[in-house]
Amino acid sequence: MRYLAADVGGTFTDLVLVDVDPTTGAGRVHLDKVTSQATGSALGIADGIRRITTAAGLVPGDIDLFVHGFTVGTNAFLTRNGAQIALVVTQGFRDLLVIANQSRPELYSLTGRKPAPVVPRSRTVEATERVDAFGQIVTPLTEAEAMRIATDVAGLAPQSIAICLAFAHLAPAHERMIESALKKVLPEVPVYLSSRVNPQIEEYPRANTTAVAAYVGPVIDRYVQAVESRLAEIGVGAPLRLMRSDGGTATARAARENPAHMLLSGPAGGVIAGAALARDLEVANLVTFDMGGTSADFSVILGGGPTMVSGRDVDGQPLRLPTLDIETISAGGGSIARVDVGGALRVGPSSAGAVPGPACYGQGGREATVTDAAVVLGILDPHEFLGGDMQLQGGLAHQAVERRIAAPLGLGIEEAAYGIIAIANANMIQAIRTLSVERGHDIRGFALLAFGGAGPFCAVYMARELGMAEVIVPRHPGVFAAAGLLMTDLRHTAQAAWQTAMAKVEADDVGARLATLQAELDTELDRDGVAPADRYFRFAADMRCVGQFHQLTVTLPTPNGARWWDAAKLTSDFHAVHEKAYGHADTRVPIEFVNLRAEGFGRVPKPPVLADDAPAADAPVATGRRRIYVDRTIGWTDAAVYRRDDLRRGHRLTGPCIVLQRDSTVLVLPDQTGFVDRGGVIRIRATQS
Fold this sequence. Notes:
Elements: E1 2-8, E2 12-20, E3 27-35, H1 43-55, E4 65-69, H2 72-78, E5 85-90, H3 96-99, E6 124-127, E7 130-131, E8 137-139, H4 143-154, E9 160-164, H5 173-185, E10 191-193, H6 194-197, H7 203-233, E11 240-243, E12 249-250, H8 252-257, H9 265-281, E13 286-291, E14 296-302, E15 305-306, E16 308-309, E17 312-314, E18 317-319, E19 323-324, E20 326-329, E21 335-339, E22 345-351, H10 370-376, H11 394-409, H12 413-435, E23 447-451, H13 455-466, E24 470-473, H14 480-484, E25 490-501, H15 507-527, E26 535-545, E27 552-556, H16 567-582, E28 591-602, E29 624-629, E30 636-643, E31 652-654, E32 657-661, E33 664-668, E34 672-676, E35 682-686
Parallel strand pairs: 1-4, 4-11, 5-6, 5-9, 9-10, 13-23, 23-24, 30-32
Antiparallel strand pairs: 1-2, 2-3, 7-8, 11-12, 13-14, 14-15, 14-20, 16-19, 17-18, 21-22, 24-35, 25-28, 26-27, 26-28, 29-30, 31-34, 32-33, 34-35
Helix pairs in contact: 2-7, 4-5, 10-11, 10-12, 11-12, 12-13
């Protein structure tokens, strides 16, 4: 089997090819990074596949499975470059997305503005129909009214259509009638129903989630078509799998049907790979830190498993679908440093991207970036970037930092460059606190798993500041997220609203409802061609105290056998989750169900874990020494330089030192010590006094 993963970022596209001998089970791993080309283009993927297969002595047609993670949906939403859509709502709800809710980005601002909805009021069509809060039809939708709606929508010339009728999550018949009428008038235009995308109570989050699906749907569809076309052109006939926001994968068909699941495809692979590495190293709790050229992504691994949320805000708007709990900020190697009007140093959110890139790329960029600062400080070697494939221009990096930062602030160039790194780190430290400390976790007991091209040289500063237990750097940090794409299974989700008091629940009733959800998932897995023996399922419920607004997700047992249901245990589990989330729980308060959830998985072939290196017989040998600027206290100092390929399990690295490899640069500070663990992982801890 030949497994290939490609993770497209804002600056680089990372590729991992695993070639496994079917007879012996032995495997080879090939890695590559190519520059990401125009946003939304599949050109970089095709070029990367040709290059990595050639290096492996293969041709693209030899690939057996291709898994892909991408950010085109996220970028389209954040830059407001999605489709022209039309929204159909119940009469009287035309201002639903404009009014939104009471959440405000700046609570005490007198002039604060809410994020603009993805569909304006002028492109919203009202339907004369009504369903009440119990799912009973109050005002029937007639066929004539459905056709009138379809005609009005057609007059807006939409590229996609979202339908969100009041209480449609309880009674979806009216949404389906309008969909049927629209298909007669606009057969080529995709239609997204709230009763399919997010069948859950609360009109605004359900409507916005459906509108976002419609907004990014055509963009993702065009991108997937382009990927499929480019793969066919270069001879790749392998199945295409696309990373979802929840850490599973989807076929191209499933991705098109609910594109909202793909909105956060990009960062998910690193979290999945991080959870796998945590289990392998027997590290219970860690924070994943993926810093690339444009952004930095963080997530928490608890008990060896990734953390999930049932919904999240993206750019101030609710996306209410299960996702990995990832915090993303604009902080990467290409983040631009500037001096603001008040004379303060700022880093980000603007990025130099792949084109023109940091000043040191020599492609016309003139702004000082985090990468330029690392060159000035001696952390990055201009001659070793991407294994020497890309020569950095150190002189241009010095000029940019001097002209843009040092001179305006009256600082030496080293202080200015270190200031850029420090400000970027401070922004990322706050993101870690948001995910951990602000949610009740003692970060001092956590490891920081650093990957991405820039993560392994920033992480040591951040872990020291936060007092974290250690920094863990995987063997191939620059393509670690891409490797995570090969560790996932096909995934589908289903849910149903079910507001019922726990005291009134009967095992047969809840079992029948879960069976209905499982049947929906079986249908989807059938369409994906997954054999019944390769399927497995998980169930959960959104629950809350009676009278409470917020709900918590609690795992349910699989309906199996006569004694599968245990109400007392589920009640106890809910109160334990409540205690962990809020710091208190009252077991006397009655609880209720709000939603039932199910997940269906289709097992996908995965590359085997490759054999570990033999332990080292002697001490590591440095290939040279380099002057680096550590911080304002230590200043310039000599650091030993090692090559990652020369390191073996058991090797110890005394800081300050630098480890060079093609896809990243690892830094060990003077008060830290690193050692090489199994699988080539470097673990960096504070030196014991």
